[in-house]
Specification:
Layout (H helix, E strand, L loop, with lengths): L1 H14 L27 E10 L2 E11 L4 E12 L6 E2 L2 E10 L9 E10 L14 E11 L3 E14 L2 E17 L2 E12 L6 E12 L2 E10 L4 E11 L1
Antiparallel strand pairs: 1-2, 1-13, 2-3, 3-4, 3-5, 5-6, 6-7, 7-8, 8-9, 9-10, 10-11, 11-12, 12-13
C-alpha cells in the first residue's frame, strides 16, 4: 500500500499536464503554495500547531524577502509532552531559499529553488531529528505552477552533529496543490525519509485544506506516518505583510 501511494504521487508529479499557465497576479498571496517565495521587503509569518500521541508542538517562522530571488527566515518551536518529560524548545532554525530558476525565459515554466540552513540551541530534553541541535541542511525543490494547481518536489539532506545524536537523513517530498475556488485550496504530500539510523526512517502521507482571506490563510492538516502508525492533526495560520 505504501509503495502504491508513493508511486501514485510521483506519477502525478511527473505525468500531469495542464494547458493553462499560471498568472503571477493570482499567486502573489498564496503563501501555502509549495513554490511560494515572497517578493522584496515582504514579511511572512507562519504559525503552526500540531498534536499527536499527547504531544503538542507549536512553531513560529518569520521570513523576509531580501529580493525577488532570496528569502531568509528564522523558525522557533516548542514541544509540550503531556505524558513525559520531553518538553522544551527545539533548535532554532536559521535558513534561506534562493530561486535559481523561474518561469520567465524558460519554455518549460519550471521553477527551481535551493534551500539551506542551520539549526542550533534548544532544550537537551527534546531529541528528535527535526528538533536536534547542531544540524546543517541543504536541499533543492522544483516544480511548475498553473492557474488551478501546483506540482512540486523537494529533496533535502540534513547532517546532525549533536553530541547525543550524530546522524544524517534525506527527505524526498512530492506535493500536489489545487486552487479549487478563489478562496479555497487543497494540498497533498508524501514524505519518504531515509536515515543512517534505520530507527528514524519515516513515511508520511498528509493532506490539508486552506481558506484564504486577502493576505491571510488558515489551514487544517492531517498527517499519517506508516512506520509508527502515528496520526497528527494540526492548524496553521499564514500572514503576509
Amino acid at each position: 500500500m505504501r509503495k502504491f501511494l508513493a508511486g501514485f504521487i510521483v506519477f502525478v508529479l511527473c505525468g500531469t499536464s495542464v494547458g493553462a499557465s499560471a498568472r503571477a497576479d493570482g499567486l502573489d498571496f498564496d503563501t501555502s503554495d509549495p513554490l511560494f517565495l515572497q517578493k522584496t521587503n515582504e514579511v511572512l509569518s507562519e504559525t503552526t500547531f500540531t498534536y499527536w500521541d499527547n504531544v503538542l508542538r507549536a512553531a513560529e517562522t518569520l521570513s523576509f524577502g531580501i529580493n525577488d530571488r532570496l528569502a531568509v527566515g528564522l523558525n522557533v518551536n516548542f514541544q509540550q509532552d503531556f505524558d513525559g518529560s520531553e518538553d522544551g524548545f527545539g533548535a532554532v532554525d536559521l535558513g534561506g531559499i534562493y530561486r535559481v530558476g523561474t518561469a520567465a525565459g524558460n519554455s518549460a515554466h519550471i521553477i527551481s529553488d535551493v534551500l539551506f540552513g542551520l539549526k542550533f540551541g534548544g532544550s537537551s530534553r527534546v531529541r528528535t531529528p527535526d528538533y536536534a541541535d547542531s544540524t546543517y541542511y541543504a536541499g533543492y525543490r522544483f516544480g511548475r505552477q498553473w492557474t488551478g494547481m501546483t506540482l512540486a518536489a523537494t529533496i533535502k539532506s540534513s547532517w546532525i552533529f549533536d553530541d547525543d545524536m550524530g546522524m544524517a537523513y534525506i527527505d524526498l517530498t512530492p506535493e500536489a496543490y489545487f486552487r479549487i475556488a478563489p478562496d479555497w485550496r487543497l494540498g497533498a504530500h508524501f514524505t519518504l525519509r531515509k536515515a543512517t539510523e534505520p530507527h528514524y526512517d519515516q513515511e508520511w502521507l498528509g493532506g490539508k485544506i486552506i481558506k484564504q482571506y486577502g493576505r491571510t490563510q488558515y489551514a487544517a492538516h492531517l498527517d499519517y506516518e506508516f512506520e509508527s502508525d502515528d496520526l497528527q492533526v494540526g492548524f496553521d495560520v499564514n500572514i503576509l505583510f
